[in-house]
């Protein structure tokens, strides 16, 4: 076996092995209040005692249940992009739906829910409050079950804030003003008016809590759980990581607390949605990830330093809450305009972020120009192939020169006989004399692997690809090909097999079929290798890949088909420019002829004369 064939088989095997492993790994698949802690005396700017260990439905006195959700007074939230409500019990932001997104492609599908109140399955909400310090007790500050009154406002909408108030009866009047922009950003201003004749000390906090572990995609490629920026450090914690955190006795929970000096945020991220607490840039705070074990509640907190409110004065603190879709452009604008550090990294760009970020930005730009994500993927393929063309050109030229050297290599093989060392030395001299690098043919193939993975990541995790249509039946490029051989691509009235089933992998769609054909035609640019083992590998490879990628996102398969087609065209033109005329149809005929010969040799048939 000569070096050219060895290199080709090595590159093929490497590509096949990496994608096979990828396919196997990523198949197309409120806590009780903590025992009261002693009040911690603090100096100005120092963090006070933590907020209560839990803020959920069990945070009521023993034996007392929270009021049913339907009996709790609410204020509506209505903006161009979200709708929901705020509960006056605790002042929680606990009902929110995203108007621009539906659960499925059906026209009558409900909009996507993000937050949900206590009392139902999967309660998920944001709550704000104060931790007492100095001579204040927990009864003197508003908590999870405080009944707030409406001071001003009726419906929370852009330009129309609402203000809630609560008088503790001991000379402190608490107010909470909530406002929202046109997208997904709430601003929460907490204030306390001190009508007593003594200074008050207390510390504001914000909490986002999830009751029970939510349903997740469960893919290794995707992070779902806690994500936070702490000054210059980005950290991701999965839901399974939180129960393994160190137990903090005064928290009565497992928790990880990080001191943030001036810029950060913390929240829960799903595949496409996120709820994040964001203190004002420049504000120090403690970033807390917490798990309350006996109630199975996952919780994140932002704890701000204690403030002193002098007698007759009013103190206030303003923070932000992002609750919505992880749209790159929206999040980027918040990062740039509000100074929220690395907020765009709340999108899971992965290990290949240096590729996924520019690939996404290019795809996002092309989609803005073209207005169709499918055609944008094809345009992106052309762009990537243009960038890689100098390397591809050298590769194809090297392969053409290798073919020109084939007769001399055969003579060298005859002269060397079984002397492998002599054969290797002769081939190296031949390569050096003719300035041929046999490894250069593998480079474009190896470069395609991280690009392929990065594009798969972009298609899988970015919301811009969710439900992105191309044409006809291709209404969601982030989902597998919806067509199927089973119903002759929609010609028959019965439905295609459900995605993820064995039948769906067998009865593949039109895109995987075109992928297999494009790989097969690309092989036919060159005669098949003479070695039977190599022939078998090359013969099966397009069809194995075809079935392997049948369950991948259709947008990724579109990219691969386009990439194969452009590669075929480039290689054909370059080979002809160097005097080699690929006989594609002749190679196809020969491959069928060899098959018949093999069948005849096995006693299964006779070759035609």
UniProtKB/TrEMBL annotation:
Annotated ranges, domain Membrane insertase YidC N-terminal:
74-361
Q: Protein name, please?
A: Membrane protein insertase YidC
**Gene name on record?**
yidC
Q: Which family does it belong to?
A: Belongs to the OXA1/ALB3/YidC family. Type 1 subfamily.
- Keyword entries, A-Z: Cell membrane, Chaperone, Membrane, Protein transport, Transmembrane, Transmembrane helix, Transport
Q: Give the membrane topology, semicolon-separated if more than one.
A: Multi-pass membrane protein
Keyword Translocase found: no
User: Segment Disordered: which positions?
Assistant: 45-64
Recorded superkingdom: Bacteria
Domain Membrane insertase YidC/Oxa/ALB C-terminal, by residue range, is: 373-576
HAMAP family tied to this protein: YidC_type1 (MF_01810)
CDD domains per the UniProt record, alphabetical = 5TM_YidC_Alb3, EcYidC-like_peri
């Amino acid at each position: 076996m000569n070096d050219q064939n060895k290199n080709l088989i090595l590159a093929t095997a490497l590509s096949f092995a990496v994608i096979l492993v990828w396919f196997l790994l990523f198949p197309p698949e409120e806590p009780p209040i903590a025992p009261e802690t002693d009040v911690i005396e603090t100096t100005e700017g120092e963090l006070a005692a933590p907020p209560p260990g839990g803020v959920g439905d069990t945070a009521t006195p023993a034996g007392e249940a929270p009021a049913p959700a339907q009996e709790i007074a609410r204020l509506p939230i209505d903006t161009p992009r979200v709708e929901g409500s705020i509960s006056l019990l605790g002042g929680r932001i606990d009902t929110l739906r995203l108007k621009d997104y539906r659960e499925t492609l059906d026209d009558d599908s409900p909009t996507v829910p993000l937050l949900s109140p206590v009392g139902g399955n999967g309660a998920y909400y944001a709550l704000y409050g104060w931790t007492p310090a100095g001579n204040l007790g927990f009864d003197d500050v508003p908590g999870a079950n405080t009944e707030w009154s409406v001071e001003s406002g009726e419906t929370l909408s852009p330009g129309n804030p609402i203000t809630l108030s609560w008088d503790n009866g001991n000379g402190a009047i608490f107010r909470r003003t909530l406002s929202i922009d046109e997208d997904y950003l709430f601003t929460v201003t907490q204030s306390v008016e001190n009508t007593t004749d003594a200074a008050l000390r207390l510390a504001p906090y914000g909490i986002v809590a999830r009751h029970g572990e939510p349903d997740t995609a469960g893919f290794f490629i995707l992070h779902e759980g806690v994500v936070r920026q702490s000054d210059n450090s980005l950290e991701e914690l999965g839901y399974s990581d939180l129960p393994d955190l160190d137990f903090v006795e005064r928290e009565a929970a497992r928790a990880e607390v990080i001191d943030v000096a001036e810029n950060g945020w913390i929240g829960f991220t799903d595949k496409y949605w996120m709820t994040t607490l964001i203190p004002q840039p420049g504000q120090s705070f403690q970033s807390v990830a917490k798990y309350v074990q006996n109630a199975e509640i996952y919780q994140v907190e932002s704890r701000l330093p204690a403030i002193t409110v002098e007698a007759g004065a009013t103190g206030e603190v303003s923070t932000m809450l992002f609750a919505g879709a992880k749209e790159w452009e929206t999040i980027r604008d918040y990062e740039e305009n509000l100074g929220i550090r690395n907020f765009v990294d709340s999108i899971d760009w992965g290990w290949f972020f240096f590729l996924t970020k520019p690939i996404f930005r290019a795809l996002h730009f092309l989609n803005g120009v073209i207005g169709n994500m499918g055609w944008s993927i094809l345009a992106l393929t052309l762009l990537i192939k243009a960038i890689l063309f100098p390397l591809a050109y050298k590769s194809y030229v090297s392969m053409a020169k290798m073919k020109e050297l084939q007769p001399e290599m055969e003579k060298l093989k005859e002269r060397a006989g079984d002397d492998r060392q002599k054969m290797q030395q002769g081939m190296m001299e031949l390569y050096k004399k003719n300035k041929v690098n046999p490894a250069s043919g593998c480079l474009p193939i190896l470069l395609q692997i991280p690009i392929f993975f990065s594009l798969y990541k972009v298609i899988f995790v970015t919301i811009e690809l969710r439900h992105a249509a191309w044409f006809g039946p291709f209404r969601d490029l982030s989902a597998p090909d919806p067509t199927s051989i089973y119903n002759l691509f929609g010609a028959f009235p019965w439905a295609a097999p459900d995605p993820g089933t064995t039948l769906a992998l067998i009865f593949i769609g039109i895109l995987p079929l075109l992928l297999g054909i494009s790989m097969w035609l690309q092989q036919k640019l060159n005669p098949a290798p003479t070695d039977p083992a190599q022939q078998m590998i090359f013969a099966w490879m397009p069809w194995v890949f075809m079935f392997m990628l049948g369950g991948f996102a259709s947008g990724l398969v579109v990219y691969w088909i386009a990439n194969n087609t452009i590669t075929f065209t480039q290689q054909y033109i370059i080979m002809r420019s160097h005097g080699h005329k690929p006989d594609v149809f002749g190679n196809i005929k020969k491959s069928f002829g060899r098959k018949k010969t093999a069948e005849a040799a096995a006693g299964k048939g006779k070759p035609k004369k």
